[in-house]
Fold this protein.
Amino acid sequence: MALHDLYKKQKDDEIIVWTSDDPKHEGFSVLRDYPPGCGFLPVKKPDGKNDTKVLIKTGFARSAVKDNKVALFVDAAKFELYLSGRFRYNFEDTSSPTKEAVDKSNQSLQPVPLQEHGRYIYDIKTQTIHDTQNKKEVSTNELVDTIYKLHVQTIRGRKGTILKGKITAQQWVCGKAVPKMEFGLKWFNQKCFGKDIVKNKDDWGEGLFRPIPHARLITLYPHTVPFFESATQISKMAVFWISLTILVGHYLLPERWALDSVSSIAAVILLVFVFDVWLPRAVLVLINILIRFRMWFGMKKFHFR
């Protein structure tokens, strides 16, 4: 008996059984109407029926099965029937909802997608589901009804408002605040240390989903300086900061701290590393920290109880 066989179809529910030859997942989906008066106005079809429904997915990854037991994932989200397999509404299509119906729905209170992963353990051998949170056995109908009710509760009420606030804050932090800080640090590296980050044309995800390696730092305004019997290139901005540091040190440091010629050369070499290598790399480390934080915080799922 498959997982979908444990679900008893309720009135007006539409059940979609996932293909049995799917090598990765097993499960089923339930399409159910939003209750009248919930605060959300579903998009209406030309015939007056609801085009927007709640899509509840229940299933598991076959690769996660161990000793005939596996954690179920249960998702509930708003689903537009017309947009299934389409990118957008075609208002010239007679089967498409009207623009007015779509606008009216968008202007109403909106539900929040919910995910419950790991709470329910499915025993394939005994065909039972254990709720680890409430420590009891539940049926697939209880499982579907629970997330359906929670999904509807996100539309209005204090808990729904708090959840929407968290999601809004998450979108603002990851979509605006962190990218602006990343841009500011890159600008700071360019203007203060003469260093820029060259993009990896073979890996577009670098810097977006993954940290940037130090090898991507390049010198914008190289200046050649003699170094013993050879020459080396450092940023002109590094030359400026080194010169400024030496000048300030000359006038502010006590005479007893004056350096001999050998110590002066060592100090200059040290300053070259500080302003041309270490500080620019430290800024890049901060950028990479922001990239990691954006990825972690952007993937964070907020729970609704």
